[in-house]
Design a protein that fits this description.
With 751 residues, this protein is an alpha+beta fold. It folds into 5 domains: 115 residues, Topoisomerase II, domain 5 (Alpha-Beta Complex), CATH 3.90.199; 197 residues, Gyrase A, domain 2 (2-Layer Sandwich), CATH 3.30.1360.40; 125 residues, Topoisomerase, domain 3 (Orthogonal Bundle), CATH 1.10.268.10; 92 residues, no CATH class; 145 residues, DNA gyrase/topoisomerase IV, subunit A, C-terminal (Neuraminidase), CATH 2.120.10. It has 18 helices and 34 strands. The strands form 11 sheets. The chain has a 4-stranded mixed sheet with strand order 14-9-8-17. A 4-stranded antiparallel sheet has the order 10-11-13-12, with helices on one face. α2 crosses α3 and α12 runs antiparallel to α16. The longest helix has 42 residues. It is elongated and about 150 Å long.
Length: 751
C-alpha cells in the first residue's frame, strides 16, 4: 500500500465564465492558425513552414550549384531547430516547392522522385535529395547583413527570421493556397517579369491603381499553361477587389489522320488538376454514355502532356466535342483568387494587385535601409581600425617596444598615440606575419575606397529618391533574370475568348441520341419506352388510370406541357424515367400547381405557331419559341383565373379557324381575325350563354375541315358545305353537321 497523501490546500482560484474562457482559447487558436500556418506574408509570400525550410537549407549551405543533401537531413534539421511539427508535413511542403507543375518558380531543386502531374506520391525523404534554386537565393539575399529581424525559435535555443529579405516577387509569382479559421487565401501564380514591370511603374507612380497595372500583368501564369477564357473586365474586377476567379481551359489542337479521320490532342491542362484522375473521370463518363461525341481516350504522355481524344465519327464538330468535355470534366477548371495576406506580418487583409506589389516594394526598401546601415557600421569600424594601423605603421618601432616592455600594453598604446580601444585591440591582435603587409599605400587606398563607399551609402540613406532608385535597380535585375526570353520566364498561360455555341446543341451533345416513345397517363404519370412503339395495348397503368398521351421522340428531344393554369413547362426526355413499372409522376420534374391539370403534351420542334384558347372562349396565336421556359415553374402564356382555365391548343397549319363549344355550336371564321401575341388573355373566339369552349382547330379553306371520331374514322367537309357555319369571330355559331362526334372534339392533336 502506498502512503496516503493529503491534497494541498487550494490556492487562490479565479472564477472565469465558461463563455469567456472558450472565446479566449478559440481566438488564440484562430490567430495562431492565421499568423503561423495558413496565410502567407505579403512581403516574402511565404508561410512559416516554407520560410523555415529555406532558412534551414541556408544554414546547411545548400546554395545553387553546391552538392545535394538528403531530404531527410533537411527535414530533420528544420523540425529540430525551427518547426516542431510532423516530419511528413515539412516534407510535403518542401516537395511542393520543388514540383515544377505546382510552383511556377520552384524554390527547391529536387533530385529523385518528387511526384508527378499524374498525382503519384513522391519517394520517401530518405531517397530524395535537394538544394535551393536561384529564386530561393534571391529571397534569402542579405539575410546575413541584418536585412530582416530575427526572433527566438520555439525553444529559445537559436534564432529564426521573422521574414525573408524577399528579393523576388514570390507572393504573386508563385501564389499560395491556405485555409485558416474564418478566412482563406487563394493566390494563383503570375509571370515574374510582368510583375517586375508593374512594380517599376509603381515606383515611378506610387498612386497607380490596380487597373493601370493590368497593362503589364495580363493575368495568371500557371506552371501547366492552359487558356484563361474570362473577359478582360472580369479579370480587372478581380485584381481591383482582390477577389474573383479565372476560368481556365486545357489547350488542345486537332490532328489530322488518314482518310479524313482526326483526333483531338490535349497538350496543356489546368493548374492543380491530376492528369490520371482527369482521364479516369472522362473514362467513367464514356462508360456511362454521357459523352456520345467521344469514342475513346488514351494517354500518350511522356515528358510532355499528350492526351488523345477520338471522336465518334469524322463528322463531329471538334469545337462542340470539346465544349461537352469542358462542361463535364476538369479540362475546364475555375481557379479562385482571394488575395488574403498578412500585411506587415500581422494584419490579415484582402488586398488588390497594386497594394500587394506596394507591400513588396516597401519591404525591399526596408531591407535596403537595414543592409545599408549594417554596411555603414562595418565600414565605420574598418575605417577606425585602418586609422590605428596607419599610426602603428608610422610608429612601428615604438609600438613594438611598448608591447615588449609594458605589462599592460593596451592603455599604454592608447595613451601614447591617442588610440581608441578598438584601434588598440586591432594592433594587439595583429599577427607578426601581417607586419609586412602594413604598407602605407595599401592602407590609404583601402581607406579611400571605403570612404567613397560610405559617401554613397550616406547619400542613399539621406535621400528617398536614391533609395527607390536602388530598389528599381534590384527589380530590374530580377526582371533580367526571369525575362520573357528565358526558359523559366516565358509566359505559359494564354488568353482567349470562350467560343460561343448554341446551348441547346451543347446539351444535346451530352446525351446519346436514341428513339423513344413518351407515354403520359391520364393521371399524369410519365415514362419512356425504348424505340418507337406503335402498339401500346399491353401497357399497364395504375388502378383507375389509363393512357393519356403518347408520341414518338428522341433522347435529345425536349417536350412541352400545357397545363390548365395557362403555363407551359419544358422537360428533357433524357431525364424522364424508363419504361419499367408505371413511371413517375410528372410533377416530380416540374413545379405545377396542385389544382392544375394537363391539357396536352408534345415534342418541342421550334418554329411552329399555335392557337391557344381558354374555357371562356378567348384565345390568340403564339409562337412555339415563346412557350419554352427554362425553370421548373414554367412560363405563363395564357392569362386565366379560376374557374376559367386553358382548354385547347392546336397547330396553326392553315388560314381558317373552327371552334366548337360545350353547347355544341360550331363557328368558322378567318384566322387573320385572331391576333398574334407572346402572352395575354387573347380575344373572344366564340360567344356562349352557358358552358364554354370545347375544342378549336386551324385548317386550310381549300382543303376543307376534317375531324376524327372516337373510332379513328376521318370525315371532311368543304367550305361550300360549311357555308352555314361561316361567320366572324365572337359569333355564337350553329349546331354542327351530321356525323360530328358527340365528344365535341375535332380529334386532332399537335402536329
Amino acid at each position: 500500500m502506498g502512503k496516503r497523501l493529503i491534497p494541498p490546500e487550494p490556492a487562490d482560484i479565479e472564477e472565469v465564465a465558461l463563455r469567456t474562457a472558450l472565446e479566449e482559447r478559440y481566438l488564440a487558436y484562430a490567430l495562431s492558425t492565421i499568423m503561423h500556418r495558413a496565410l502567407p506574408d505579403a512581403r516574402d509570400g511565404l508561410k512559416p513552414v516554407h520560410r523555415r525550410i529555406l532558412y534551414g537549407m541556408r544554414l546547411l549551405r545548400l546554395d545553387p550549384g553546391t552538392p545535394f543533401k538528403k531530404s531527410a537531413k533537411i527535414v530533420g534539421d528544420v523540425m529540430g531547430s525551427f518547426h516542431p511539427h510532423g516530419d511528413q508535413a515539412i516534407y510535403d511542403a518542401m516537395v511542393r516547392l520543388a514540383q515544377d507543375f505546382s510552383s511556377r518558380y520552384p524554390l527547391v531543386d529536387g533530385q529523385g522522385n518528387f511526384g508527378n502531374i499524374d498525382g503519384d506520391n513522391p519517394a520517401a525523404y530518405r531517397y530524395t535529395e535537394a538544394r535551393m534554386t536561384d529564386v530561393a537565393r534571391l529571397l534569402l539575399e542579405g539575410i546575413d547583413e541584418d536585412g530582416v529581424e530575427f526572433r527566438a525559435n520555439y525553444d529559445g535555443q537559436s534564432k529564426e527570421p521573422v521574414v525573408l529579405p524577399g528579393g523576388f516577387p514570390n507572393l504573386l509569382a508563385n501564389g499560395a493556397q491556405g485555409i485558416a479559421v474564418g478566412m482563406a487565401t487563394a493566390i494563383p501564380p503570375h509571370n515574374a517579369a510582368e510583375l517586375c514591370d508593374a512594380a517599376l511603374h509603381l515606383i515611378d507612380k506610387p498612386d497607380a491603381k490596380s487597373r493601370a497595372l493590368l497593362k503589364w500583368v495580363k493575368g495568371p501564369d500557371f506552371p501547366t499553361g492552359g487558356i484563361v477564357v474570362d473577359s478582360k473586365e472580369s479579370i480587372a474586377e478581380a485584381y481591383t477587389t482582390g477577389r474573383g476567379a479565372f476560368r481556365t481551359r486545357a489547350k488542345w489542337h486537332q490532328e489530322e489522320g488518314a482518310r479524313g479521320t482526326w483526333v483531338v490532342v490535349v497538350t496543356e491542362i489546368p493548374w492543380l488538376v491530376q492528369k490520371s484522375r482527369l482521364i479516369e473521370k472522362i473514362a467513367e463518363l464514356l462508360n456511362a454514355k454521357k459523352l456520345p461525341l467521344v469514342d475513346d481516350i488514351r494517354d500518350e504522355s511522356a515528358e510532355d502532356i499528350r492526351i488523345v481524344i477520338e471522336p465518334k465519327s469524322r463528322n463531329v464538330d471538334p469545337e462542340l466535342l470539346m465544349e461537352s468535355l469542358f462542361k463535364l470534366t476538369e479540362l475546364e477548371s475555375r481557379i479562385s483568387l482571394n488575395l488574403n495576406v498578412l500585411v506587415k506580418g500581422r494584419i490579415p487583409k484582402v488586398v488588390g494587385l497594386a497594394e500587394a506589389l506596394r507591400e513588396w516594394l516597401d519591404h525591399l526598401r526596408d531591407v535596403l535601409l537595414r543592409r545599408s546601415n549594417y554596411r555603414k557600421a562595418q565600414i565605420e569600424h574598418r575605417l577606425e581600425v585602418l586609422g590605428g594601423y596607419l599610426i602603428a605603421y608610422l610608429n612601428i618601432d615604438k609600438v613594438i617596444k611598448i608591447i615588449r616592455t609594458e605589462d599592460e600594453p593596451k592603455p599604454a598604446l592608447m595613451k601614447a598615440f591617442k588610440l581608441t580601444e578598438v584601434q588598440a585591440d586591432a594592433i594587439l591582435n595583429m599577427r607578426l606575419r601581417s607586419l609586412r603587409k602594413l604598407e602605407e599605400m595599401e592602407i590609404r587606398t583601402e581607406d579611400k575606397n571605403l570612404r567613397a563607399e560610405l559617401k554613397g551609402i550616406n547619400a542613399v540613406l539621406g535621400s528617398e529618391a536614391e533609395q527607390w532608385k536602388k530598389v528599381a535597380e534590384q527589380v530590374r535585375k530580377v526582371r533580367d533574370m526571369f525575362g520573357p526570353k528565358t526558359p523559366l520566364g516565358k509566359r505559359r498561360t494564354i488568353f482567349a475568348d470562350a467560343p460561343e455555341h448554341d446551348l441547346a446543341a451543347i446539351e444535346e451533345a451530352f446525351v446519346e441520341r436514341e428513339p423513344v416513345t413518351v407515354v403520359v397517363s391520364d393521371k399524369g404519370w410519365v415514362r419512356t419506352l425504348k424505340g418507337h412503339v406503335e402498339d401500346l395495348s399491353n401497357l399497364s397503368f395504375k388502378t383507375d388510370d389509363k393512357l393519356g398521351f403518347s408520341f414518338f421522340a428522341e433522347t435529345t428531344s425536349k417536350i412541352l406541357l400545357l397545363a390548365t393554369n395557362g403555363r407551359f413547362y419544358s422537360l428533357d426526355v433524357a431525364k424522364l424515367p424508363g419504361g419499367r413499372g408505371h413511371g413517375e409522376p410528372i410533377r416530380m420534374f416540374i413545379d405545377m400547381e396542385q389544382d392544375a391539370a394537363i391539357v396536352t403534351v408534345f415534342v418541342n420542334t421550334g418554329g411552329r405557331k399555335f392557337l391557344i384558347a381558354s374555357h371562356e372562349g378567348q384565345g390568340f396565336v403564339v409562337n412555339e419559341d415563346d412557350c419554352v421556359g427554362t425553370t421548373r415553374k414554367g412560363k405563363q402564356v395564357l392569362n386565366v383565373e379560376m374557374p376559367n382555365e386553358a382548354r385547347a391548343l392546336t397547330t396553326v397549319t392553315g388560314d381558317t379557324v373552327a371552334v366548337i363549344g360545350e353547347n355544341r355550336k360550331l363557328l368558322i371564321f378567318p384566322l387573320d381575325q385572331v391576333p398574334e401575341m407572346a402572352r395575354g388573355r387573347g380575344v373572344r373566339l366564340q360567344k356562349y350563354k352557358d358552358g364554354g369552349l370545347s375544342d378549336v382547330v386551324v385548317f386550310t379553306a381549300k382543303e376543307g375541315l376534317k375531324w376524327r371520331d372516337s373510332a379513328g374514322r376521318e370525315f371532311s367537309a368543304t367550305m361550300k358545305e360549311l357555308s352555314e357555319w361561316r361567320g366572324t369571330r365572337a359569333d355564337a355559331g350553329r349546331l354542327p353537321p351530321k356525323g360530328f362526334p358527340k365528344s365535341n372534339k375535332f380529334g386532332w392533336g399537335i402536329e
